[in-house]
Amino acid sequence: MKKSILQVLGILTLSATLVTSCTTDTSGTDSSSSTFVVNPLNFQGTITEGEVVLVAGTTYKLSGKIQVNSGATLTIPAGTIIEGTGGTASYIAVAQGGKLNVNGTASKPVVMTSGLTTKKAGDWGGLVICGKAPINRVSGGASTAQSEVADLAYGGTVANDNSGSIRYLRIEYAGAAFNSEKEFNGASLFGVGSGTTFEYVETYQGADDGFEFFGGTVNTSNLISFGNEDDQYDWTEGWSGTNTNWYGKISFGKGNRGIEADNFELGFANTPIANPTITNLTLVGPGSGASSLIYTENQGLKLRRGTKGIFSNVVLSSWATGVDVENDESLNAIGTGLKITGINFIDVTTKTKGKKTAVAPATSGVSADASLVIASEISTATGAGNGVNAPSWSAGWSVGL
């Protein structure tokens, strides 16, 4: 009798598993501990408590914003697809104290993409994460601010702040614009702390920057920025972090710099100073002779406004200018806080250039020798792992390469 009951229970359990695996869970949750109600066909709202766990392999229609507030967590399993359909109204934002866990894999990445039939850059907003790590909008690192998109607070004094774990994520066709001066990036990291995991992430064909760091201390690895219409990577407001394996490439007939880097545009010497370390970097441009009317900022690395940075094992290919250093605060750091060790220039017309800070009309635009930023130039540098070509670590989860 006991054996028969166990057999029946086993059959029922197996049947239930099969039904679950073959149908869409209309609640959109699996083992969630939050009262937040998910509708995969109308995915929007604010998660205020507990953990919301989406269903692996399900497609969610992001019709408005999803915001994860302090004390709440959104967990997205491997193979899940989120399709933005609402322009600037549809985006995912993590507020200070909230957490986002993206648990993709190389064979089953999480994909955030356009939900439109004909997909293009700027179809939806993008990913915004706001943390409590230091920024330098006010010198000293204790300042806070409101994010330029999502209107959430960011910044503070918690250098090791944890906003979750993001692995194997692809963000496509993001960058919806509010106006000509304000638009989303693929991934906007505002004051994100070093307790956050951020690796194996691609931003693909977005309308603004691929990745932009607004202060913070987050470390990253294995990032791809492909075909984004402004800069592939951008930082400001005192961001520092340790980073490995970055690949960026201009494509689709649009794009500006490989990296645009500032300390802070309104305070070149504000502290904490932007000072990341980037090891294994490849940036591929539109070509050294590409039209200057289309590509008005054809530069691999633009380092200015007081930023520092230590770069090693770098490949710069197909740029009119390889490395452009601007403003006295950045120029003065050359050789110590700002240097590139092991760089390979391929099809680059002007390897380095520099310009001092304009202090008066008579000295406006005075050039400076930026060649000393290059600690060593070697033809064997491999960049992100495979020179100008797709690195092996991009296989399976990325697109475009």
Automatic annotation (TrEMBL):
The positions making up the signal sequence are 1-21
Superkingdom as given in the UniProt entry: Bacteria
Q: Which UniProt keywords apply?
A: Signal
Q: Which InterPro entries match?
A: Pectin_lyase_fold/virulence
Q: What's the name of the protein?
A: Uncharacterized protein
Q: Which organism is it from?
A: Flavobacterium xanthum
